Each structure stands twice: as C-alpha cells, then as structure tokens.
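Is zinc ion placement plausible here? Inputs below.
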Amino acid sequence: CRFRAPANGRYKPTCYEHAANCYTHAFLIVPAIVGSALLHRLSDDCWEKITAWIYGMGLCALFIVSTVFHIVSWKKSHLRTVEHCFHMCDRMVIYFFIAASYAPWLNLRELGPLASHMRWFIWLMAAGGTIYVFLYHEKYKVVELFFYLTMGFSPALVVTSMNNTDGLQELAYGGLIYCLGVVFFKSDGIIPFAHAIWHLFVATAAAVHYYAIWKYLYRSPTDFIRHL
Ligand SMILES: [Zn+2]
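Reply from A.M.:
I modeled the complex. Tokens:
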C-alpha cells in the first residue's frame, strides 16, 4: 500500500522503503569516520589537519543525522515534533555538508584574492540555509532546491579558476552524480524506493569526492612523486 504525498505534505514511505532509507546511509557512518581519520593522519600541517576535521565532521554528520532522522521517521507514530525536528536537522546538515565538501579544495589550494573569499562565504551560505530551514521548513520546496543547487554550483566557479586543476574532473563527476540523484530526490511516491536511490547517489558522489580529496589534496608529496 503506497500513499501519494498530499500537495503540501510529505510522502509516507512503505516500511520496506523506510528500512532502505535507514540502511543506505547507516552503512556509511563507519566508512565516513575511518575515512576522516585517515585524512587527519595524512595531514602534513596544521591547516590540513583542521581542514580534515571540518570535512570529516561534515561527512560523518550527514550520514549520522540522515540515519537518525530516517530511524525516527520510521519508528515515530507518537513523536511528531521529534520527527519534525530531525527532518529539519536532516535538511540543515546538507548545507553544511556542501560547505564541508568544498572546504578542502578552497582551504588547501592556492586561490586568487577575490576567489579566496569563498573560503568563508560558503559558510555564510550554509548559515543562511540553516536559518531558512528554521523559518520556512517544507513551505517552499522549490526555493529549498534552488538554494541547494546555488550552494552546490557557486563555489565551482571559484574552484575552476584555480591554477592547479588536478582533481577537478573528479569533483565535477561527483557534482554530476548529485545532480542526477536529485531526479530521485524529487520522485517520492512516483518511483518505488526513490529516496533510498537518492541516498545511493549521495553515497557514490561523496565517495568520488572523498577519493579526489584523498588523492589530490592529502597524499604525501613523496608518495605522489613515486607514482608519476
Ligand atoms: Zn534521506
């Protein structure tokens, strides 16, 4: 039995879909923690260490908050406000996740004088998105999607102006995977397991981005030369 989402409400997943929504992100919590710790270990200086922390926290927070939200929304029934709160957190963490995903590229690469402002501006956008969720959560879904895409694309303009373009191809591939995933994000109740499929796109894109960050921004210089 499946229910169409009311025009102003949320789609109610079947229990199989609920389970899939939980597991598709729960399985990534441990890899996210291990991956973050690895980047921290590979850091050569303080700035790389801080960036590994920021990126790692964004990565872990995304999968943890998402898993908790989906568990709460699955097991809820009497805890409406708790579910609502976690749904807001689930949406807010996406803004910080986008900022955290760009942070290694913005922090660890040489940027022009104007472009370097994106290092803090992206966090301002994340804060703006969070305030928006507080005020208008679920009211204007198109605006919300527009914010996500703006935040996802505007730092790309800065990043592509860098002198060192190593890894930008992978960065773009990851971005493309997120964009393809949005089709499923918007297909709740139309395509079965649409939200879990969206989760898999997020997981794949995050893995591609992690790989690029690990390979191009964190692998030690001597190791890199050996592979040339
Ligand atoms: Zn989700």
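Short version: Residues 21, 66, 70, 195, 199 surround zinc ion (CB under 6 Å).
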